[in-house]
Amino acid sequence: FESGGCFHSRTAMGMFEHVREAVERGDVLLEWDFSKGAPDKPLLKDVYGGERRRAKTLNFSIAYGKTVYGLSADWGVDMDEAKQMVSKWYTGREEVEQWQKRTKAEARKSGATRTLMGRFRELKGIQSGAPRLVGHGERAAINTPIQGGAADIMTLAMLKIARSERLRELGYKLLLQIHDEVILEGPEEHAQAAKAEVVSCMQNPFDAALPSLEVALVVDAKTASNWYEAK
């Protein structure tokens, strides 16, 4: 991640043989460290956007606990093909599967799960023995730390933005939050300075009393006259 690695592009290369062949031939670059300047060839994500989007769907589906049956229904493929895709995904990512199994086991034992910052979620039915309720609880057990953890990070970033003296001096205020995005409004002449402060707040949401992350939080920020242009 620190050198510009792209998780979704790597998954796409593993899923699609023609994408792998294009990378191996040198037609496209798997990823690029932009600290070294501009790449001399197109990136995988720019040439094979459709394949990468499908890989991204698979990444999030597995992370959020979607079943093989759910994937086969979403993609219109049979169970065997969906099972092969999932099996291939876990190859080389054994630590993800280990974390999922460990998290599910802890949830079955305690009847609950927690987010990154320790917020508690009771998992009703996970200890009932009923397969449908247990399955739902297990999916929530691995979904909550991920999505709930992301919400924790976003909340901390928003608090930091709201408390920023610098943004207040520049005349900027927080208008909206949409998933992992925030929208601020203020004087156009101070846009670049405000953007720098917002990026700093979002990349460093934790204070000295809270733990940080092993992976850097990368922020893509833009200035525009409206949200549509910013997108």
Q: What is the compact description of this entry?
A:
This protein has helices spanning 7-15, 17-25, 44-47, 49-63, 68-75, 79-90, 94-110, 131-162, 165-170, 191-203, 227-230; strands spanning 112-114, 120-122, 173-178, 181-185. The model has no long low-confidence stretch (mean pLDDT 90).
Describe this structure in words.
It is a single chain. The chain is mainly alpha-helical and 231 residues long. Helix content is 56%, strand content 7%. Helix 5 packs across helix 6. The two termini are 23 Å apart.
Q: How would you describe the oligomerization state of the chains in this entry? A: single chain
> Biggest sheet: strands side by side, in what order?
1-2
Extended strand count? 4
Indicate the proportion of strand residues: 5-15%
**How much is the radius of gyration in Å?**
21 Å
Topology record:
Layout (H helix, E strand, L loop, with lengths): L6 H9 L1 H9 L18 H4 L1 H15 L4 H8 L3 H12 L3 H17 L1 E3 L5 E3 L8 H32 L2 H6 L2 E6 L2 E5 L5 H13 L23 H4 L1
Antiparallel strand pairs: 1-2, 3-4
Could you name the key traits of this structure?
231 residues, single chain, mainly alpha
